[in-house]
Amino acid sequence: MSNINNLTSKIIKDAEDKKEVIIQTAEKEKNRILSKKQVEASTAEKIIIEKAEREAVSRKERIISGAKLQARNEKLEAKQEVIREIFESSIETLCNLSKDDFKEFVKESILNSDIVGEQNIILNDSSKKIINKTFLAVINKELGAKASVILSEETRNFKGGFILEKDGIEINNTFEALVNSLKDDLSIDVAIMLFN
């Protein structure tokens, strides 16, 4: 019986020793896997953080760039508004010419136009109070036989100046048209004077 006890003890001891070896091996394997996973997690964490930092920098740059573009557009819009107001103001200044200055403008404009034949002068309501047949007779005398200007019954709605019309063809000498015709050429010069 003692042999059976000895044999049983030896089997139990061998099993205990194997159990200890298996546990140690499993513990080592567990530690190796955990260590590997911690390195992988650390590497993944660095990659995620670097990507997030790059995206944050890129987003910040986009936001700053967008804000700069918006500010530039608003500044440009404000400058264009100032330039538009200057041209509108020049039209108003022309509309406020004295009667004598307005007559001189009409006379010089007609005499410097290369017109022939009978022309109708079309005015607005306020200009009709200044330009009359007597005044046009003086201009017609200076034009001579090549052309003549007669006062049209038609009245148009424009701020100031006049229109010459012959056979449906018009020469637009309204203040709005004259200022607008110069706007493209003068806008750059006005901007330089104002904003430099």
Automatic annotation (TrEMBL):
It comes from the Bacteria. Keywords: ATP synthesis, Hydrogen ion transport, Ion transport, Transport. It holds the Pfam family vATP-synt_E. Produces ATP from ADP in the presence of a proton gradient across the membrane. Belongs to the V-ATPase E subunit family. This is V-type proton ATPase subunit E. It comes from Clostridium gelidum.
